[in-house]
Fold this sequence. Notes:
This protein has 653 residues and is α/β, with parallel strands linked by helices. It has two domains: 48-248, no CATH class; 259-647, 3-Layer(aba) Sandwich (Alkaline Phosphatase, subunit A). It is globular.
Amino acid sequence: MIYLSQFNIISTQLLSLNYIIISYIILIYIWLYYNLYFQQYKTKLQYLFTIYIFINPLIIFYICEYAYNPLIYNISWKYILLNYIIIFVLQSIALLLTKIKFYVFRILYLLAFLLGISNYYITLFRSGNSIMLVDLLSFQTAFSVIGNYHYQITEGMLKSFLIMLSGFIILSLLKITISSSSQNISYKKYNNKLTIVVLIIFFSGFFWITKTDFSSLYGIDCKNMWCPADTYNTYGFAASFITYYQRARVHKPGGYSGEKIANIFSKINRQKDMMATVSFKPYIIVIMNESFSNVEELGPINYLSDDLHNIFSLQNIEYGRDYVSIRGGGTCQTEFEFLTGNSTANLHGQVPFSQFNFENVPSIVMNLKKQGYMTIAMHPENPSNWKRNSVYKGLKFDHFISREDFNDAGLIRGWVSDLSDYQKLIHVFEQQKQPTFIFNVTMQNHGGYDIDSISKDIRVKVDERYSQYTDFQAYESLMHQSDLALKYLINYFRRSDKPVIICFFGDHQPDLDDKFEDTLIKSGQTRDDTGLSIREKYYAVPYFIWANYKLSAISSEKKTINGMNIISPNYLGAVLLKYAGLELSSFDKYLLWQRHKISAINALGFYGDDNKWHVLDEKSPVYGPLLQDYRYIQYNAMFDKQKDWKYYTVEAK
């Protein structure tokens, strides 16, 4: 249930809020005594409706901006004008579709208000990730998890709300004026003239928005794809939203051709060291654990209890850091990278699960089916979250086990616990009579982290220096429960007489108190750190590959940072198949080869074989061609309907 945990009004800004309240009271007075004072001016006031149409986009702009933007007064006048024009065009479209009705303005006010406060909370809960088109397309997923966060009302929201109510009152006055005019002017003719104007604005505005590159023409900086809130605060919601949308559209890479794809793969296929190495087919279990992370990635913490003892004590594994592209939310991004071998670094902020069709996208699922595997997806939540029911079907999973199959599961904070999730996984495993691939996305550790939602009997102690950060304590309590559940899972499979290989990784780090995270980062910073290497610390999550039999080594593909193996989710599937000793497609071999040169890649940057982090758009004669080849292959795999499938599949067994 959504509830308001705080009612926070900044005392130093009360004066500006009082001015708005006083203005609001005056408007109410005018509304109540309208007939008494303004009856004689009704005919002239009718023409204010035309003027109001041109003023209204500015009202909509401030309704939206006040609700989320702490830097609203710093927006340059030219960007206010740009937002005004965008809103004016959208308003014209709405008026055209509804034949110029008064209720359109009220709807626009309400939408602006909802978008503003939604953007505030999304930015707050997802560490600077403002609203994108995908968030509007994935609202069902958002509603399914929204109740687990705390909400506060800000002064900006109150201002936004009062401006919206003032707009409602002004509209009421204008409606009374036009509908009750004693002169009874030809409103139909008046309406027709407006329709012509609206049509002109609509077509010219539509062409402008769809054909103009806002980033280059208007100087809107949206390079910071991992923290777009800076852009939204600087340039305004409407202009920033469209700019990010334009950047996110799929374009064929320059120089792309089928011949170029064939040349890339021909070099890879000459290698002889990537053949199948075992005579049996192990059961393959992949666990993508919600928000599973080692907080010490940010900086050192002296734990009073070893919350992740079991994962650290595992033997016979490859263990290290997995550099993902998201933080605090957007689980399906990491999911997409693992299942397909593609990277969100090549998608400029797009969210494939929500935006693309997966009927013709190669995946690890497809290749395992070719080798005789039963393929099962598990997620103890709504199957439509992130369109998984559709995506999993497109990826060719045989079965999808979702929330309705976990009716008797134990819960923590209302989510299915990791322990219950693993018990269900084991039950599914025991029913299989052939080699099986189980892909399991857990839910227990989803944000937010309210200490009051954690039972006292499972709370852990934390470093005394950070005991005031109760969200950290709540999160670590959940991590400890995950660690105990993992111990249960590993102990079961140690005793199994079937060969089993397990790949485990977190989908992203949690979003914890900013002051807490900043303190950790500063305490762990070294002289070798760069701005990018520090930022990457927020995107490192644990991963391991473990088996209940002896694994083959793949030392040549490993790369380390300070002695720790590193990888990114796009490589994990190919590495897992290599460990399992199964047949590899040309694409799998390409990924293993690329890992020699680029050990990890995400939406922020990549780690090269020179042992340094690099930004994606760096002009490098060494890495530039490698990254471009990867873009070519990803475009071929995801979007080219004429692609040659032989590069992405193995022969059926």
